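Can't paste images in this forum, so I'm doing it all in text. The chain is below; anyone willing to post the predicted structure tokens underneath?
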Amino acid sequence: MTMTGTPQPRSHAQPPRVVTASASGLDRDRILVFGDAVLAAEDSLHDAALRTANALGARTGRGADVTAVPWSSWTGMTLLSAGVGMHLDNYDVVVVCLSGSVVHSRTTNTAVVGAARQALVLVDQLRPHLAPTAEIVVALAHKGDQTGLVTALQQARHDLVVLDTAPDATAPALFLEVTHLLLEQQRARAGSPQWLRSKPQPFEHRYDAIRRLGIVDAPADSALDRIVQQMAVLFETEGAAITLLPAGRQWSAASLWLPRGTAALQDSFCRSTVLRSGPMVVGDAWDPDRPPVVRRGPIRFYGGHPLEDLDGTRIGAVCVFDSAPRREDTVETDLLRDFAIVTRDTLYRH
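Text version of the structure:
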């Protein structure tokens, strides 16, 4: 089941130079694109990223998150400066689209080698910040014959995938096919980014992301309230909430049934949800045969999905809950993921 009727996003928080768009699905891949040569030029950056995420999701049968940093945000800068504050180790594939002074027609071998070196300086600055098995794709976005530069880059770094994405080339289809193959190969490797994302993230990453968001202790927001109300209606529960987990407490930005605001961590199901990349469902928290998640309280059924920052840092959860237990296999966890996406897009203006 897919969410419709996304509320208008909020106007505060993340600078507009970074956007993330998502295709539905629980076991998703994460792609980071510096530049827009492999995205649909006729769309806005967010719409182009969404189109790419949907196309990748259709190929893989999984969800996809595509984060895009436009040309204007890093032209003349290092990629690390353009992505300041982002946790690059959350990404499976990182695409660097090269244009401008780095990529243009080269008439001598010396010029080709020089261009390759310039490109590799940018790429080599990224590598230590990525997961060990993350893939880097270099896309050469310039009209003209780039054969020499492609060859020079491939010979210099055997761990790179180099694509010629000149305007007259079939760049989107080729990019999607190559990315799909890289993702499938990567999932078979130990220590892949997908595997790493399933583990608890450093607490400080979460705390920093929440501080940057600036929503904790803010007044109620009507857009978030509407999301919570829609969650309760679709899941047919007494309660629903959007929660964040800053240091030492749980804070609900919007809530039904339970009060909005601060709650003790001992009563927080979301404290456990934020530790994993996928949903958490507790059919009956009072069941004596299962390990307790929280102190015994009014909630018996709980279903939650992590709420993420634009780079995949888990900052809290969206959740539904009820005083009556229910079967865990009846809970639409993909719908919980859709609500997490809607909430992220509401918090982070694109």
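Confidence is low (pLDDT under 50) at residues 1-16. The chain is about 35% helix and 20% strand.
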